[in-house]
Write a structure and sequence with these properties.
two-stranded antiparallel ribbon; globular; 13 helices; mainly alpha
């Protein structure tokens, strides 16, 4: 006998107008944003590739100022293309995981919208998203749609990190004022201990561009897995806990604010964005029905992926406290 499903009246969810713009299928816009994002990622990749190709000369101060000729080096151009391809591939896998799962359940969704972020951005993109245009009414569907993206993206980000780190270069420390130092997820640190076990102390790591693309993929995965609102993590936690998941919203938002103070000011931007989209997850018809045991084990796997991918300080020295100290308000 099939379990009876109670029908509940879901509250009206008012979507932000800025997001409703993407509800119409605009294939030309999907293609245009994709092309611009590929180009912006390629140009950002040039910087990473120059640093990698000329790492030894940079360490020995024998290269001087990097010029146009260096950026046109065939090795630099090839690595820049590789960076763009791997990065876009990870993001595309993430979004196509959502999109194809929607198609499987006959849920209406748009193609991915990529967000370009050209230089001086150190990444080249702010990610991508799809717009789901028809309601998701079952927990099984919600869980599968939410989990498919992070799993697909992480499956590509992991080998990118392994391959890229295996080719990265450990060099003597280079004191460079004003340089950007990126934080490391737990997965990055574990792999680094394997590949650079014999490296001398106080060394700097010149990342292979593919390794940095994998780093970005891990960061994107972790950002989307926070259990709040309509992020992937919000979908997953709602499918697992139902209406009890609403208890996660305020603590997670508070965590964003604390991390903005002590680790990275960008968490304030993330908190504002989540608040704009909405802290609460829209209700679905069978929110009181438990998902299958198999999906619960997948949820545990996703929690582990979040732990290994999470970076509290994506950019070191960029917390609110660091900025305040830099102004001299709190002293040094």
């Amino acid at each position: 006998m099939e379990e009876e499903i109670k029908q509940v009246q879901a509250p009206q969810y008012q979507e932000p107008r800025a997001m409703s713009f993407f509800a119409k299928q605009r294939t030309w816009l999907n293609i245009l944003l994709f092309v611009i994002t590929v180009v912006s990622s390629f140009f950002v990749g040039l910087t990473w590739s120059v640093n990698y190709v000329y790492a030894d000369k940079i360490v020995n101060n024998s290269i001087g100022t990097v010029g146009l000729r260096d950026f046109l080096d065939p090795d630099v151009l090839a690595l820049s293309i590789m960076y763009a391809v791997v990065l876009i591939g990870i993001l595309l896998a993430h979004e196509m995981g959502h999109y194809l799962t929607c198609r499987w359940y006959r849920i209406d969704a748009t193609l991915p919208y990529f967000i370009p972020f050209p230089p001086p951005s150190p990444i080249g993109t702010m990610g991508a998203f799809i717009k789901i245009r028809s309601p998701i009414t079952r927990k099984q569907q919600l869980f599968d749609v939410g989990v498919a993206g992070p799993l697909a993206g992480f499956i590509l980000a992991l080998p990118a990190l392994v391959y890229g780190l295996s080719l990265s270069k450990a060099v003597p420390h280079i004191p460079q004022e004003g340089s950007i130092i990126f934080g490391e997820p737990l997965l990055f640190k574990l792999l680094g201990d394997i590949f650079f076990r014999g490296a001398p102390e106080n060394f700097d790591l010149i990342l292979h561009p593919v390794a940095f693309a994998g780093w970005v993929g891990a960061l994107v995965t972790a950002l989307n897995l926070f259990p709040i609102g309509q992020l992937d993590g919000g979908h997953i936690v709602y499918a697992v806990f139902g209406k009890k998941s609403r208890k996660f919203a305020k603590p997670v938002l508070g965590a964003f604010l604390l991390m903005g103070v002590f680790f990275w000011i960008g968490w304030f931007v993330w908190a504002i964005l989540i608040g704009f989209i909405g802290l609460k997850h829209p209700r679905i018809w069978d929110e009181d029905i438990s998902i299958s045991e198999g999906r619960r084990w997948i949820a545990v796997l996703v929690v582990l992926i979040f732990i290994f991918s999470f970076i509290p300080d994506p950019v070191k020295g960029g917390s609110l406290l660091d900025l305040v100290r830099g102004t001299g308000i709190l002293g040094r």
